[in-house]
Amino acid sequence: MRKIAVITGTRAEYGLLYWIIKGIHDDSELELQLIVTGAHLSPEFGFTVKEIEKNGFPIAERAEMLLSSDTETAIATSMGLGMIGFAKAYEKLKPDIMVVLGDRFEIHAAVSAAVPFRIPVAHIHGGEVTEGAMDEMFRHAITKMSHIHFPAIETYAERVRQLGEHPDRVFCFGAPGIDNIYKLTLMDRQKLSEELQLPADGKWGIVGYHPATLEKNSAEVQIKEILNAVAEFPNLCWIFTLPNADMESRVIINNIKDYVSKKPKTSRLFSSLGQLRYLSLLRHGEVLVGNSSSGIIEASSFELPVVNIGSRQTGRIKPANVIDVPVCERDKIVSAVRRAMSGEFRHSLRGLKNPYGDGTASKRIVDVLKKFPLENILKKPFYESGDLNRG
Q1: Going by C-beta distance under 8 Å and a sequence separation of 6 or more, which residues neighbour residue 134?
Q2: 14: number of CA atoms within 13 Å, CB side?
Q3: ∠ at Cα 33 (88, 61), nearest 5°?
Q4: Counting Cβ atoms within 10 Å, is residue 200 exposed (0-12), middle (13-18) or buried (19+)?
Q5: What would the pLDDT profile of 220-276 be if each residue is shown by its tens digit?
Q6: Contact 260/269 with Cβ under 8 angstroms?
Q7: CA atoms of 116 and 87, how far apart (whole Å)
């Protein structure tokens, strides 16, 4: 029986991995080893390990790593503590292969710790570009420490090959998070408004903003500009989701909490919505404002207008529903939100096709994880694509 370890450190990432985790768990020829870490284990970020337990998945190991601070020292220390925790988990579980998704520091620590244990790594969402976040460096480093690759679209697959990964190990099936849109029965507007205590007869806007981690001391200025902008639309009830556990995340959280406390009739704040409620909100919302990757990857499936602010997502391929605001200034954001909510723009999105997949990625990924031969997988000759000038 092939033992497959899956690492999850955040609520968002777990939602994207859900059907892969379920596919492994439900297969009698595979053994799921679920390793939970990071914000999942933090009460401040919703203690979302409870959601995993509620879904009925057995947790093989909990790797503590997140410190109660968002400074540079705290993040680097968390990575070190994480490597210690992952080393203990790998020594105990001895997985045949492990699965990771994305580009966060928790995942980089998990993959780095796997190297001396000679554990093959399957990496989802490699080859992407996010110029405004340190995740950019972690992502490409994870690619080079991985052995099987599942990029979301062909452009990203080509980047993985450019990094020297052999085409036979690169499988382009789409983004697994899209599978939730096809597999889950999303909530209707009435039920969602009751659960989240939103005005049933009003319009809803969504704000998801994370620190641009390569821009030091920018988070407070930027979140204030965003809050001043959304305040110009009192006809919308704004639903805020908390940022990831990144450097400078707390200043964002504190400013949002202050805003919501002063505008309780037109704003709500949630530490964790879960995939079902979040995707249902995307279906029924008027606009998504911020810099969340969900605005780039999932939102186009609902023809939802997105105002993407700042540099965090610079480099990602964006569908036509995304309006970029490169400079985070109130007036520019207000103008973009008005355009996004215009009848003309919404009409232009009718029939929009999501370039990130068709809802079949998870099953195809599990099939590869089950069948790909693991003998001699650790040694990777550098694949030279095209005619290179070798001097």
Answers
A1: 105, 213, 214
A2: 28
A3: 40
A4: exposed
A5: 999 999 999 999 999 999 999 988 777 788 899 999 999 999 999 999 999 888 899
A6: yes
A7: 9
Six token digits for residue 349: 């999105």
- The sign one gets for the Cα dihedral 356, 357, 360, 365 is negative
Residue 366 phi/psi, 5-degree rounding, is -60, -40
Q: Give start and end residues of each alpha helix (H) in 231-273.
A: 249-262
Scan for tokens 């309780």, then name that residue.
264
Cβ 293 vs Cβ 313: under 8 Å: yes
One-letter identity of residue 346: R
**Which range among 2-16, 94-108, 234-248 shows the weakest confidence by mean pLDDT?**
234-248
Identify which of 92, 151, 104 has the alpha carbon closest to the alpha carbon of residue 9.
Answer: 104
Q: How confident is the model at residue 33 (pLDDT cuts 50, 70, 90)?
A: very high
What structural domains and CATH numbers belong to the chain?
A: 2-177+359-371 (3.40.50.2000), 186-348 (3.40.50.2000)
Cα–Cα distance measured from residue 145 to residue 139, given in angstroms and rounded to the nearest whole number: 10
8-state DSSP, 28: T
The first and second tokens of residue 371, run together, are 């069948």
Task: Name every residue whose Cβ is closer than 8 Å to that of residue 145 and which is 6 or more positions away in sequence.
Answer: 111, 112, 114, 115, 121
Two structure tokens written together for 170: 């690169």
